[in-house]
Amino acid sequence: MNVLFLCTHNSARSILAEALLNHLGGPRFTAYSAGSSPRANQQPNPLGLQVLQGAGIATDGLRSKSWDEFAAPGAPHMDLIVTVCDNAAGEVCPVWPGHPASVHWGYPDPSEGDAPDEVKREAFRQTLLAMKRRLELLISLPPSKLDKAVLGESARELAKH
User: Fold this and answer.
1) What is the pLDDT of residues 42-52, one digit of tens each?
2) Structural domains in the chain?
């Protein structure tokens, strides 16, 4: 099952979710992330990468990218699209090939504001923990709940956790 996590800049929350699901999901899940409008030369947030590495999660190959990459011909077919920030949830998304299920799982932006790095690092850790709880529920769903016909409803149920 291919899952695409979307955020505005693809530098913090969506990167965390991509790395975490690829770490937890085993052979059943492949995660990707993208942004609706990443800035020029956007890179993953260094504090997010530090938190992932500190949790033993690989960060090799993580990069900020536009969601246009996943709407283009030849892109991996997505089964589930998850917006993880409120801005991306309200934007008009591309038409995804195969019409995957979609859901919004909102998380506060751990990189926002002028707090010292240690405060932001802790915000990244808390965001990673919140995502971990929800993603563990996703990967533990039985195959019947991951079927295309019911996947959207299953993912929306997880938004309550």
Assistant:
1) 899 999 999 99
2) 2-158 (3.40.50.2300)
